[in-house]
Design brief:
With 198 residues, the protein is α/β, with parallel strands linked by helices. It contains 5 helices and 5 strands, in the order αβααββββαα. Strands 2-1-3-4-5 form a 5-stranded mixed sheet, covered by helices on one side. A hairpin with a 4-residue loop joins strand 4 and strand 5. The longest helix is centred in the middle third of the chain and has 20 residues. 23% of the residues are buried.
Length: 198
C-alpha cells in the first residue's frame, strides 16, 4: 500500500495526468464604520453620478466581450452599491445616485468603468465638492473569488464589495483631514446654489 501511494505521488510530480487548480480567493477590505454618531457639522451629503460605461464607439462585443446592455445596467448597479456602502458607514449625510453633476449636493462622485467582466472590475473615480474643489482621482480594482457567486455566499455583500469599501474608506480618510470650517463652507456653498436656483 505504501509503495502504491508513493507511485501515485511520483506520477503527480512528473505531471502524468494530475493537475493542480489554483483557487482564487477574493481580496477583502474591512469597511471603516463610525463608532459613535458623527458630528452633524461633518455630515456632508453625497451625490453619485451614474457611472460612465466606458464603451468605445467601435465596440465589437464578439471581440471585446463588452455587451452594451449589460454595461449600461452596470452604470446604475455599481453606483447604487456604492451608495448603500457609503450609507452604512455613518460618516455621511444623505447619499443619493444622481442623474448628472448639476444636482445640488455637497460632494459629487463620478466614475468610469474601465473593466467589468464578472471576474475583474476596474473603476476610475473622481471626487469634487460643491465649491468646485477637486478632491482626488483614483483607480480601484479587484478580482472576485471562486466563492463570490456561490449559493452559500453572504448575499448582503456584492462580489465587488472590496472596491466599494476601498472607495468609502478613502473618502472618509480624505474628509477627516479637512478642517471643520472647510466642511461648513462646502455645505454653505451647496445650500446657496440650491436657493439661488429656486
Amino acid at each position: 500500500m505504501l509503495r502504491l501511494s508513493l507511485l501515485i505521488i511520483l506520477l503527480c510530480l512528473v505531471g502524468a495526468g494530475c493537475t493542480v487548480n489554483e483557487v482564487i480567493v477574493a481580496d477583502e477590505t474591512e469597511l471603516v464604520v463610525a463608532d459613535t454618531p458623527a458630528d452633524e457639522s461633518r455630515l456632508l451629503d453625497i451625490g453619485i453620478v451614474e457611472f460612465n460605461p466606458g464603451i468605445d464607439d467601435d465596440n465589437n462585443p464578439r471581440k471585446t466581450g463588452v455587451h452594451e446592455e449589460i454595461r449600461f445596467a452596470e452604470t446604475k448597479y455599481l453606483a447604487y452599491h456604492l451608495k448603500t456602502t457609503l450609507q452604512g458607514t455613518g460618516h455621511w449625510g444623505a447619499v443619493r445616485v444622481i442623474p448628472s453633476r448639476e444636482a445640488f449636493t455637497d460632494v459629487v462622485i463620478s466614475g468610469d468603468i474601465e473593466k467589468s467582466d464578472g471576474e475583474f472590475v476596474v473603476i476610475n473615480i473622481t471626487v469634487e465638492d460643491a465649491s468646485g474643489t477637486h478632491w482626488y482621482d483614483k483607480s480601484y480594482e479587484t478580482q472576485t473569488g471562486v466563492t463570490s457567486y456561490s449559493e452559500r455566499r453572504d448575499r448582503r455583500l456584492d462580489p465587488y464589495q472590496k472596491v466599494f469599501n476601498d472607495i468609502a474608506n478613502d473618502l472618509q480618510a480624505y474628509s477627516e483631514l479637512m478642517e471643520p470650517k472647510r466642511l461648513r463652507q462646502v455645505r454653505q456653498i451647496s445650500e446657496l446654489r440650491f436657493f439661488a436656483d429656486m
